[in-house]
């Protein structure tokens, strides 16, 4: 009887050990699956962040090139406007010079007229 109880006890202990071992393996498998799922989820996020970073880097480079081109174009526009302003000033200077010459010519014409009239009066006298 004692030996039978001992055998039953040992058999139950072995069953418990087997059950515990099976549950341990299932827990390890479940933990492994969970870990892999978490890592995969994180990898997707990291991959997306990497793709976004590459896009941003490309956009930054493009923006830098465009900003440089815009700066050069703006400098050209400023140069053209300055040249235009200088041309307008020169036109104004030429206009003033032409008025001055015109006034001088009128003065000379009036003086010549006066001299000519004076000669006509002295010839008739």
Please describe what this structure looks like.
- The chain is mainly α.
- The chain is built from one helix and no strands.
- The model has no long low-confidence stretch (mean pLDDT 90).
- Residues 1-20 are annotated as: Disordered.
- This is Biogenesis of lysosome-related organelles complex 1 subunit 1.
Concise description?
Belongs to the BLOC1S1 family. This protein has 125 residues and is mainly α. It has one helix at 2-124.
Features:
about 120 residues; mainly alpha; 1 helix; rod-shaped
Secondary structure blueprint with pairings:
Blueprint: H1 2-124
**Chain-averaged pLDDT:** 90
Instruction: Determine the fraction of residues in helical runs and give it as a percent range.
Output: over 70%
Number of helices: 1
Strand proportion: under 5%
Sequence stretches where pLDDT stays below 50 over 5 or more residues: none
């Amino acid at each position: 009887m004692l030996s039978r109880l001992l055998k039953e006890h040992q058999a139950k202990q072995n069953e418990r050990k087997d059950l515990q071992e099976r549950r341990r393996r299932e827990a390890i498998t479940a933990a492994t699956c969970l870990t892999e799922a978490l890592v995969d989820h994180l990898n997707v996020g990291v991959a997306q962040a990497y793709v976004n970073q590459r896009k941003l880097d490309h956009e930054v480079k493009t923006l830098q090139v465009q900003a440089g081109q815009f700066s050069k174009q703006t400098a050209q526009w400023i140069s053209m406007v300055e040249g235009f302003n200088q041309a307008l000033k020169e036109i104004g200077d030429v206009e003033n010079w032409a008025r001055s010459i015109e006034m001088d010519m009128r003065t000379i014409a009036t003086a010549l007229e006066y001299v000519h009239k004076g000669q006509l009066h002295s010839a008739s006298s």
